[in-house]
Amino acid sequence: MVLDKDLPSRFLVAGHLFAVRWTRYASIMMGKDFRVNSPKNGIIWNSAIEHAYERQRICFSYSGLGSEFILHVLDKSLLEKKLSAVGQHKTDPDFVQALGDDTFESLQGKRVNFTGAEGKGPLKRALALHAKLALENCAKIYPADFDPRKFNFDDMSEHEGKEELMKLWLDELDTGSVAESGLNEAAAASADPEEAVNEEAVAEGP
């Protein structure tokens, strides 16, 4: 999908746009209609892209056209790195051969159409939240010519208290204490009983 080339299926992985490890915060950050395992929160792409996305080294902005998004490499040290050099398949010779000399720099600014077989795109809220976290995380290591103000990273959706909760979560992520914050209490208070998550089964933070 991202590379515009066919790869052997064993090099494709299924990822979550809104991470499973954040499940306990899903209802207050994404709205009560959100489901972590919804097809709209899922994506199938190669393991190199999944690796960089999970580690918040790349993100996507919305182009304003249907289900088209723009890929941004946020970590300047990643630009010259070959795609075949990262991810779970980096030691597989067939993976190296399939990706060739493609680097992350070749993906910078690439427009990607996420429309699935059913004609629907991904959940914009999930990509927007990931982008906010990635932009914050990589703020000191942006490529020299990258200016986030030129792109649309907002999901353009509203629900009560979203901005306040977003700021609180970002602030707490800096200290690694999300699970001990007031956000954790808010999540418990606002979650539906049927959607409650066993906190011991969920990772403490991203």
Search tags:
6 helices; 12% strand; 3-stranded antiparallel β-sheet; 206 residues; two-stranded antiparallel ribbon; alpha+beta; disordered C terminus; single chain
Write the layout of secondary structure elements.
Blueprint: E1 12-16, H1 26-30, E2 42-46, H2 47-54, E3 58-62, E4 68-73, H3 93-99, E5 111-113, H4 124-137, H5 162-175, H6 182-190
Antiparallel strand pairs: 1-2, 3-4, 4-5
Structure description:
- This protein is an alpha+beta fold and 206 residues long.
- The chain has one domain.
- 28% of the residues lie in helices and 12% in strands.
- Residues 192-206 have a biased composition (Acidic residues).
- Residues 180-206 are annotated as: Disordered.
Briefly say what this structure is.
The protein is an alpha+beta fold. It has helices at residues 26-30, 47-54, 93-99, 124-137, 162-175, 182-190, and strands at 12-16, 42-46, 58-62, 68-73, 111-113. It has one domain (9-201).
